[in-house]
Amino acid sequence: MKFLITSIAISTCALFNACQSNNNAGNAQHAATHHVDQQQAASTSQPSVPLAKEPTKQLPDFKFYKVKSGIGFTNEDIPANRNTVFILFDPSCGHCQQETGLLAKNYEKLKDVNLYFISMNDPSLMASFLETFGKELVDKPNVEVLYDRNQEFIQKFHVPAQFPANYIYGANGALKSSWDGEKNIDFVIAEFIK
Length: 194
Known about the structure:
Elements: H1 2-20, H2 25-42, E1 63-66, E2 72-74, E3 84-88, H3 94-105, H4 107-110, E4 114-119, H5 123-126, H6 129-133, E5 143-147, H7 152-157, E6 165-169, E7 175-180, H8 185-193
Parallel strand pairs: 3-4, 4-5
Antiparallel strand pairs: 1-2, 1-5, 3-6, 6-7
């Protein structure tokens, strides 16, 4: 019993920290900077990589990887003439799980929007994310879970303060809206399809 209570307490603390990033953009940026600094220390030939402190106004060039296949995915792979939504998430984040479930239940309203769930977490942690929390999104042609193995999101898009972080780009590649953290699902859907 003591082990069970300790496990629940540790899991709750980890989940809270994953979702909230301590409610401080500085902490999220510090963690991202620390991660990038560690990578740069391993390879001293790399120049310093700046982090995106503000959401980028125009969709940048990027290369992520499809979690299921490992195939590269770039901005050239995005279907044209529709809104494109990037959701930066942590698979263990309760708010991310909840938003995904609510999006899944409202898929009919979102079938004309490109939905990309992106994480820097190990792909094995992301592999069953949609199957577990958003079954209705699995195998949809406009939905993909992407692995950001080179931390391009925080370098080119934005370093969020909280998860899930949502970024909506129009058909012209211009940023239409963005926010960090939990929002009412009606607001989220309205912004995605606006």
